[in-house]
Amino acid sequence: MTGTPHADPAAVARVRAALSAAGLPDTVRTFDAAVPTAAAAATVLGCEVGAIANSLVFEHDGAPLLILASGAARVDTRLVSRALGGKVRRAEPGFVLEHTGQRVGGVAPVGHPEPLRTLLDVHLAEHPVLWAGAGDHLSMLSIAYADLARVTGAEELAVR
Q1: Other C-beta atoms lying within 10 Å of the C-beta of residue 129
Q2: Which of 71, 78, 45 is CA-nearest to residue 56?
Q3: Contact in structure between 21 and 152 (CB atoms under 8 Å)
Q4: DSSP codes of every residue in 5-60
């Protein structure tokens, strides 16, 4: 992330509404400093980097694909491309904002204008509590793996 941390109360409100609609508690926490990377978030939260569920947007044959990946490793786009068929590549920031309503560095797994096809990194199941972006650069939410899978409708896949 470059520049000033981006607060977006409307995006965070949409995330809170999505959690509520799914019958989940509001676990959103907002911080004074930005948490745009897994390492930064883990430091602030006092958790392992692997417990951070990065919400990464890719293009799969031109359509948005959200991959919820452990902060402990990079997504292997060749592996994901083989599993899904077609071409998977990292999306540009404008594409991410268009399809999620949220800026890169603060994308949440929920709260988007339309549901996105979502993949959930099976390695995240190793952690009882996960942390994910909550719509802006200052906010995170906590959630259990099973709840994350349910609320996003994600397909579970080894993405690394």
Answers
A1: 12
A2: 71
A3: no
A4: ----HHHHHHHHHHHHHTT-----EE-SS---SHHHHHHHHTS-GGGEEEEEEEEE
Coil, strand or helix at 121? strand
Q: How many helices (H) and strands (E) does the chain have?
A: 5, 8
The pLDDT-based confidence of 84 (bands split at 50, 70, 90) is: very high
Report d(CA 49, CA 65) in Å as an integer. Answer: 23
| Predicted TM-score of the model (pTM) | 0.94
How many whole angstroms separate alpha carbon 52 and alpha carbon 41? 7
| Cα distances (Å, whole numbers) of residue 119 to 9, 47, 75, 78, 123 | 26, 23, 11, 15, 12
The mean predicted confidence, pLDDT, of the chain is 94
